[in-house]
Amino acid sequence: MRITDLHCMRLLGPRPHGGGGKPGTFSKLLVRIDTDEGSYGLGEAENMMGVKEGIEYLRAWLIGRDPMAVRPFFSEMLYGTVPPHPRFRVYDPIRFEKTYRPSLICSPTATPTGPVIWALSGVEMALLDLAGKILNTPVYNLLGGRYRDRIRIYLDRSAPEAVDDLDAWKKMAEDSVRDGFTQLKFDIDYTASDLVEDFWNRSIPLQQMNGMVRRLKSVRQTVGQDVELCVDCHMQYNVVDAVRLAQELAFLKLMWLEDPTPISNPQACATVREKSPIAICIGEMFIAEQFRLFIDAKACDIIHPDVLFCGGLQEGRRIADYAELHYLPMAMHGNGGCLATIAAAHLAAATRNFLGLEYHFWEAQWVGRYVNREGVSLFKDGYLPLTDAPGFGVELNVEVCREHLAPGETLFSEP
Q1: Which residue in 115, 227, 308, 329 has a CA-CA distance of 20 to 30 Å to 101?
Q2: Is the domain of 128 the same as that of 165?
Q3: Is the same domain home to 123 and 157?
């Protein structure tokens, strides 16, 4: 069996509740990998700068390959090989006419981070879906088997649009718990955005911090003591104010404080962790080597990979195992729609130290429907139920995809 093509299409649609509760749009790249025997795999990639170009680059290398050789392909695309290079590194230059100069000795960007691994994350997802279908087994079995048959979802609520209205905070909390979710996350940088004094200096003045505390306190009072609450700092703050924020919020019994400082400096994050009464969670944009640096520097309590950014499910498996060797738990950042969320759930099922998987798009119903699992809803009672269907057990919802095709895009044809 050989790979015959890699297709990509972009979806675009409304997002009623975005950052800070404000409406906006949401866009995703879906990929499909076809074989000469008619089987295919589906994946999802983030529509960030350079990702679509990265997928085109990967397509030029992927056609003609054995679809089961997932790890060798991943390693080649990120790290290259030494001369004279494996036989399958010989490329057809015609395939590169619409993409970038091929690189034999490293990734096309000479680094294993950024758009190249974000593109590879979506392609790896499709390859694993394909491998599961070929072997007639769920992807979680390819990762070692499942510990659990349903995956806890934590709902990212960011903030209400009326950020200064305590009743809006209470209603958002009440609605989320009523819908079955028992773990909620809020964006601390949006929590008191009306009280910001300086956009640039990474500080949190006292008035703003008091607003953060007051509004999150209203959420805790609304949901009670048994619902887990987390906050995300979006890598925004200096060390001093991140520590002070953690101390001010400690009475709320938060599950974690996420990305308190910019993520390029493990020592800064380690300082916050040392002084914080709240667990520090980091890593949504990290690859495995960055997780190793932060874990070794004792800069985190909880790791937080995203299958869209870390390199996919098998890299997520490596990251989880390294954390487990240090007895650190793993939550999972989730910037994906339904396909990436289902894929991440397969990794979560096969991971001993898993805590919860993030979902952002509760109000954007189409985002949860562009793939289907026959007879199974995406969520039930705050969890994502797994099935024993081969691969990820999903099929494209053609009607939803057609309705939300981005301008200039065409729907996948039948394989």
Answers
A1: 308
A2: no
A3: no
